[in-house]
Amino acid sequence: MERVSIRPARLEELPFLDGLLLRSKSHWVGGRVADVPAVTPELTAEDIASRHATVAEKDGVPIGFYTLNEHEDYLGIGLFFVDRPFIGTGVGRLLWSHLVQRAVTLGARLLGVGAEPRAEGFYQRMGMVSRHEFDHNGERLIWMTGEIGKVVT
Questions:
Q1: Domain N-acetyltransferase, which positions (predicted)?
Q2: Are 43 and 53 a contacting pair, CB within 8 Å?
Q3: Which of these, 1, 26, 67, 130, could form a disulfide with 51 (CB 3.0-4.6 Å)?
Q4: How far is residue 18 from each of residues 13, 88, 93, measured CA to CA in Å?
Q5: How remote is the C-alpha of 151 from its chain's centroid?
Q6: For the whole model, what pTM was predicted?
Q7: Where does residue 31 fall: left (phi above 0), alpha (psi -120 to 50 degrees), or beta otherwise?
Q8: HSE (CB half, 13 Å, CA atoms) of 61?
């Protein structure tokens, strides 16, 4: 893979990252952003300011990002998206590695994520374990957890 760097997200990137999220989700619904479910989360200024928003960039352009939510007993993966042209190229794996390193730095022992069913395979390959399904704002998600030290780094 060509050179990809990881860095903190910037507030002025918010509109671009929101578009990246929609393009990423469109990959799984036939490629049309118009077909992305209305329940799709949006990235907020608060996410960038207080949720460890982190970007993967190539040639100065964001191509993926994640956010984290700190909880008392686990570190939650809030958003984790790779732009459509880079899905399957290793960018997700690179972001995951950074995310796990950040989790260790934050002292987390457990990761948790409400994953879309289409993302379950990725998270399983990263060492996360599917626990149960639940409904979140009309969207079916799978609660997954992974212990630091047992997930892929």
A1: 4-149
A2: yes
A3: 67
A4: 9, 20, 21
A5: 15
A6: 0.90
A7: left
A8: 9
